[in-house]
TrEMBL record:
InterPro entries: Atg22-like, ATG22/LtaA_families, MFS_dom, MFS_trans_sf. It is found in: Cell membrane. It is a multi-pass membrane protein. The chain crosses the membrane at residues 30-50, 88-111, 120-137, 143-164, 185-205, 217-239, 283-306, 318-337, 349-367, 373-396, 408-430, 436-455. This is MFS transporter. Residues 281-475 form the Major facilitator superfamily (MFS) profile domain. Gene3D superfamilies: MFS general substrate transporter like domains. Residues 1-22 are annotated as: Disordered. Its main location: membrane. Keywords: Membrane, Transmembrane, Transmembrane helix, Transport.
Length: 475
């Protein structure tokens, strides 16, 4: 076995570009694994189980004498504000977004100044995974515990993703980012899908061995938290020798490294909001992303509520649909990545938003109790879900100034998965006023239309040039 000295000599003998490519590929492989790790929580907990489960717990608290599965007309009191149990999960997500919007931009500024951002990634993921695992304790009428744990896990997920997305700019050159981002999303869907398949078997086979449905749900929530924490070890260790970027690169003098990570971060943040006006294309992209991503996240996060409470489908049918969506999304992400290589990520994302608009419109007309129609809709969602999200991430990375990746990605991440703001708020308000999830879901069409119109106005090449980045061959 060659020694470390031999390997160093071998690397020195290679052409500079060859060594760089080998290092980049190794770091990319490690980077992919965080998509695998956190997707278990995003899929099993945030998208499928926690919404209906928290609603069941909240219904039990508000209407203790009412059978499980029936809509509750009473209200919960949340800090003195009456909240319908069916809207609690949507409102929790909305409040989490407001908190995230205040915290994540600070996290991004600190991450940009960190010599070892992978350690920050590990800390945020560890706390989030602990909160996700603790959801096994939510039972009976303990909806308050569920709300707190959702908020902690979601904020930590968003914080870890700020760091993670910022690292993308370090491990992949401009021409490779669409491919690398798409592969990360695809691997995430595989990981999330595998755990979801195991939980699907548990929910269906559990009663045969004496495990009740609610107990199976709580075990599934625990498994998602443990999966998130354990697999995060791979990227944290694999990125431990990530080449350091000069911290002063692209930073204003008053945010120099010697001022310290946190103190300098606040100085850096002040300048970010001032300087953002100097990047009009980046700002326009963020505005477009705010709308269309809120639509995507609300559809994903509310689909289980729509399927179980509006269409009257069983938990197993909804879980099976999400399982199919996970594996369809693997192919969708890879296909979108290939299409983007030919016609550009900007055009590909715009096409994906047209499909999303059709999906939401069709969802309104899905008949109650018809599982095949819900499954077909899920397959269509899977085809566009991974591709639009992966390419949006790589597109934005081209518009971020060098040396400010995590800071700018914190603005992006505040609107990212699990932290939708306007979408969940609208969804919850429409349901509370109309008691109809159909009207709630169709209201989301506006987000895709507005987001698509704004994205169509983004001049990507001008934005890349203004950010001081190298433009890929095809945008």
């Amino acid at each position: 076995m060659p020694s470390s000295t031999d390997r160093s000599a071998e690397a020195a003998a290679l052409p500079e570009g060859t060594t760089r490519r080998r290092r980049s590929t190794r770091h990319q492989r490690a980077w992919y694994w965080y998509d695998w790790a956190n997707s278990a929580y995003v899929t099993t907990t945030a998208a499928v189980l926690m919404g209906p489960y928290l609603t069941t717990v909240a219904n039990r608290a508000a209407c203790p004498d009412q059978p499980v599965g029936q809509s509750c007309a009473a209200h919960l009191s949340v800090l003195g504000v009456p909240v319908a149990p069916g809207s609690l999960y949507s409102y929790t997500t909305t409040v989490t977004t407001v908190v995230s919007a205040l915290l994540l931009i600070v996290v991004g500024a600190v991450a940009d100044r960190s010599l070892r951002p992978q350690r920050l990634l590990g800390w945020f993921a560890g706390v989030g995974a602990a909160a996700a695992s603790a959801m096994v304790l939510v039972q009976g009428t303990a909806w308050q515990l569920g709300v707190v744990l959702i908020m902690v896990a979601s904020v930590c997920l968003g914080s870890s993703m700020v760091v993670y997305d910022g690292i993308l700019c370090r491990v992949a050159p401009p021409d490779d980012r669409d491919r690398v981002s798409s592969r990360g999303w695809a691997l995430g869907y595989v990981g999330g899908g595998l755990l979801l398949a195991a939980n699907f078997l548990l929910l269906n086979l559990g009663p045969r061995v004496g495990i009740g449905t609610e107990t199976a749900v709580r075990i599934s929530l625990l498994s998602a938290g443990l999966w998130w924490g354990l697999f995060t070890v791979i990227p944290v260790l694999g990125l431990r020798d990530l080449p350091a970027r000069p911290l002063a690169e692209g930073l204003p003098p008053e945010a120099a490294p010697e001022r310290g990570a946190v103190r300098g971060a606040f100085a850096q943040l002040r300048d970010t909001f001032v300087e953002l006006r100097g990047y009009p294309q980046t700002l326009l992209f963020l505005l477009a992303y705010l709308f269309f991503n809120d639509g995507i996240q609300t559809v994903i996060g509310s689909s289980s509520l729509y399927g179980t409470l509006e269409l009257g489908l069983s938990q197993s049918q909804v879980l099976l649909t999400f399982l199919v969506v996970q594996f369809v999304a693997v192919g969708g992400a890879l296909i979108f990545g290939r299409v983007a290589g030919r016609i550009g990520a900007w055009r590909t994302v715009l096409g994906g938003l047209v499909v999303w608009t059709l999906v939401v419109g069709v969802a309104y007309f899905v008949p109650s109790g018809v599982f095949t129609a819900f499954l077909a809709l899920g397959i269509l969602i899977g085809l566009v879900m991974g591709g639009t999200q992966a390419l949006a991430r790589s597109l934005y990375s081209q518009l971020v100034p060098q040396g400010r990746e995590s800071e700018f990605f914190s603005l992006y991440q505040a609107m990212e998965r699990g932290t939708s703001w306007f979408g969940t708020l609208l969804f919850g308000v429409v349901h509370q006023l109309t008691h109809s999830y159909r009207l709630s879901i169709v209201a989301l069409v506006a987000f895709f239309v507005i987001g698509g119109v704004l994205l169509s106005r983004v001049d990507m090449r001008e934005g890349i040039r203004a950010a001081g980045n190298e433009a890929p061959a095809v945008v």
